[in-house]
Structures are given as C-alpha cells and as structure tokens.
Amino acid sequence: MKGISLNPSLIRQTLVSLVARFAGVGLNFMVIIILTRNLRVNEAGMILLMMTLVTGFALFSRIGVEQWLVRDVAALPDEDLTSSQSRYLLSSWRFLLFSSLAFMALWLLLSPLMQKHLFDGEIHTPLLLLSALGILFFNLVAGNAAFMKGAHRITESLLTQNALPATTQLLLLLALWFWFPRSQNYFWIYTLSLGLAAALSLLWLRPWWQQQQQQAPFTLKGIMQESLPLAPISWMAFLMLWADTLMTGLLLSNDEVALFSIAARLAFIVGIFLTALDATVYPRLLKTAKQTPDKLRPLFWQGTVLVAGIMLLSTALMALASKYLLQVFRPEYVAAHQALLILLLSQLVRGLSLTFSFMFIIRRQVTHLNILLFSALAVNIIANLILTPRFSIAGAASAGLLANLTLTMGVMVLFFHKRLLNKAD
User: Fold this and answer.
1) Residue 199 CA: distances (Å) to CA of 42, 140, 206, 253, 359
2) Exposed, middle or buried, 177 (CB in 10 Å: 0-12/13-18/19+)?
3) What is the tens place of the pLDDT at every residue in 379-416?
4) For the chain, first and last CA: distance in Å?
5) Crossing angle of the two packed helices 81-113 and 65-74, in degrees rounded to 10
C-alpha cells in the first residue's frame, strides 16, 4: 500500500462515468418531483412503491445474469471479439425471457396480497396486473446495460440503465400531462415507459444482434449454473433498500411509504457515485487479474482509495443539503430528514466494502461472500420487525444501517483472513 498514486486514466473514466450517471439521476428526480408535486402523498407513495416492486422482482428474476455478463464478456480475448460478445448477448436475452415470464406469473399470483397489504386496497386491480409486464421490460434494459458494461462501453451502459427509462417516463408524463394524475393513469404510463426504454436499448445494440452467429447460444442450464452463485451479489446492492421499503409498506401507511421512498431515493444519490465507481473499477480489476496479475495489487488499492474519498465527500455534501433537497418535493417531505441522514450513513458504510467484494468474485470465492450477504439480510429483516413499528421510517433506515455495518465489517475481515490479494487467480 506504500506510495499509492491514483491512475489518471482511472480517474478520467470515473469522472466520465459520474457525468453519465448524473444525467440519469437528474432525469429520475425530475420524474419523481413531477409525481410528488402533482399527486396526493398517498398516491405518490403507491407509485413509488410500485416502481420499487417492479425493480425488485426484475432483479430477482435475472438470477445474477448481469454479473455473469460483466465477468465473462469483460475477460473475452480480442480475437473475433464482436462475434464472441454477440453470443453472450443473445444467450442472455433467451434466458431473461424465460426467467421474466416465471416471475411475472409469480407477480400475478401475489397480486391480491400486494393489493391488500402493500397498497392498502387503494390500487385498481387491472393496473396492478398490467404492471407485471414491467418485469420483462426492466430486465431487457438492465441486461443490455450489463452487456455494455462488460464490453467496456461504460458511458453507454450507465445511460441505458439510468437515463433511458427516466427519459421515456418523463416524455410520456409530459405528453399526457392532463391525464396522468387522474384515475391512477400514472401506473400504466410507468409500465409503457419501461417498454419504450427496452425497445430503444435493443436498437442501441443492433451491431451485436445483427452479427452472424457461428456458435450455438449458451444453454439455459449452463447460464443458470454460472449466474446463480453470483445472484446475491447483484441482489444485495438493492435488496437492503428493497426490504426496508417493503417493510414500510407492510407496517406503515401509504403516506409514510412516500416519505421513506423519497428519503431512500435521495440517499441513493450517494449510491450513484458507487455505481459509477463500480462500472469503472470492476471491469479494470477483472481484466488486470486475467491479463497482468502483477499489477492487480496497486490497482486494487488505487480503486479502494478512490471509492473511499468520493463516498466520504458525497455523503458529507448530501447531509449538508438534506433538508433543502427534501423541500423540493413538497414541504411535507421534510419529516423524512432524520431517516435520510441515517440512510446516507448506511450508503457510505456499504460503499466502503465495494472493492473488497469485487475480489471475492475475481477469486471465485463467492460462497463466502454470499453467506455474508444473507447474514446481513437476516439482520435487516429482524431489525425492521423490531424498529419500524416503534420508530417508523427512522427505524426502517436504522435497520438498513445495521445490516450494512454487518456486511462491510464481515467482508473486510474475511478479505484479509483469506489473503485474496496474495492468491493467484
């Protein structure tokens, strides 16, 4: 660790990634501000919860396929590269179609329970059922973005996953301005926006799916065997927040769900920095571990210092501006200030484990990482059951903080115990 100096190209790519990521963030917050300022608080709570549910169902249905795409596509040799990449892309589409259909069926089966217990019986049944299509649409967007990330198209990847769905939703809200607040039209508009985003992401990847195929696609079983061990890694970045939101939906009112959802989305601005760093550092670590392993140690510590510095700075700035940011949505949302501060600290704690977690994937020791991830999730659920009924949204935020402390401390201890930087790949 002596004499660590940051690689200029690493910093440059990180800055480009941050700009691309924040383009998406700005558009997403424009959508949320439109929703919160034009809908009653309980209605805003319902659509924000719906967006979280669709994202979560889609995430689980991908079963880690995006991690498989990034890991294997990023390490492909340069010979006949486009053809090899195309094989992965087309195979992922086939896998995502079947997995999405399975989880869409699960959505339909669970819809009566979701309507009663999560939406307090206030959502119209046809709109809840229609929202199942969002799982497939969101998976296409996320899968295509993961492929671009593996192909080292970092800026395109970030814009596809973050800016594209927000852009299509924003355009539809503006085009249907006089209709969207009425009769819960905002639900089907959200689903349609995901469909448009999926179609546009497919067009973006035309050079790959038009490539002549000489190799058979990967089998569904083969993809499952590779992606399943990686699934918890994909899930956990979102799962803690998802669990907190579900718990607020189950234990609190739609109004409180709205307050927590806004605080969570503001806290996730810090997570945006983390996603940009992920998109920059992870592919570089993968390629270095495969091709020039002697350079892995300095690159790892450069990435770790970069992550810690950016996360600390962004968390501090967000904490200072937290009350003003909440007022942008509506004055009522300032009541979520305490929860927001706790969520910001939680994001910081989680971010400090980022590069350490990467090494478990690179060294193919994800079993140990998965045990830590599920342990943290157990802590989250138990803490939510205890704290949320007593302390409302601040309790839900505290549950996430306890879970992320468990995860980060466990990852770091096991990283040094396993001496992951000293092992050959």
Assistant:
1) 32, 9, 11, 36, 35
2) exposed
3) 988 999 999 999 999 999 999 899 999 989 998 998 88
4) 20
5) 170
